[in-house]
Amino acid sequence: MEWNIDSIRFDEKGLIPAIVQDYYSKQVLTLAYMNRESLEITMREGKTCFYSRSRGELWRKGETSGNFQQVVSIIADCDRDALVIEVIKDGPACHTGEESCFFQPVYQSEEVGAFSYEDLYRMLEDRKKNPREGSYTTYLFEKGKDKILKKIGEESTEVIIGAAKNDRSETLYEIADLAYHVMVLMVEEGIPMKELARELAGRHVVDRKVKQERMK
Question: What pTM did the predictor assign?
Answer without folding.
Answer: 0.64
